[in-house]
Design a protein that fits this description.
This protein has 142 residues and is of the alpha/beta class. The chain has a single domain, classed as Rossmann fold (3-Layer(aba) Sandwich), CATH 3.40.50.1010. It is built from 6 helices and 5 strands, in the order E-H-H-E-H-H-E-H-H-E-E. The protein has helices at 10-17, 23-34, 44-57, 60-71, 82-94, 99-111; strands at 6-8, 40-43, 75-78, 114-117, 131-133. A 5-stranded parallel sheet has the order 3-2-1-4-5. The radius of gyration is 15 Å and the shape is globular.
């Protein structure tokens, strides 16, 4: 059996875009996907999060740049279906996670793929979703 397919969480996408710890790991997996060794999927929720958070933190121009860049990646971006909505609803109802995280995790479940992230909130799903965690950011104290 080969390497598992992957689903990139928004945090994994930003890891590469912002060259954070774990970026090389993500880049290596994208290279493996380009060569056909693995498949990588992403959720429409991730595209939405990248867009709105970048608009808020930086600018619409930067958001457009990021979206153009990630659209060039060898990632199959999956959009909402009835099955995906039901799976996300179940996860959201049973776990303290955001709606976007519910869609990303449901995408991993339905694709039978490894969820790649560095979001501590997603750790509540560890028993039901296979995952690869990237280095978490240090917690900032106020």
């Amino acid at each position: 059996m080969g390497e598992p397919n992957l689903v990139l969480d928004t945090s994994a996408v930003f890891t590469l875009l912002l060259d954070e710890p774990g970026a090389q790991w993500v880049q290596e997996r994208l290279q493996r996907a380009r060569s056909g060794k693995i498949s990588i999927f992403g959720s429409f929720a991730t595209l939405t999060e990248v867009d709105y958070t970048t608009r808020q933190a930086e600018s619409i121009e930067r958001a457009n740049l990021y979206l153009a860049l990630i659209s060039s990646w060898p990632v199959t971006w999956l959009h909402s279906t009835g099955d995906l909505c039901r799976a996300a609803a179940r996860l959201k109802a049973e776990h303290a996670i955001s709606l976007a995280d519910a869609f990303v995790a449901a995408t991993a479940l339905l694709q039978r793929a490894l969820l790649v992230h560095k979001d501590p909130e997603l750790m509540t799903l560890k028993a039901m979703v296979a995952m690869e965690t990237l280095p978490f950011k240090p917690v900032r104290r106020r």
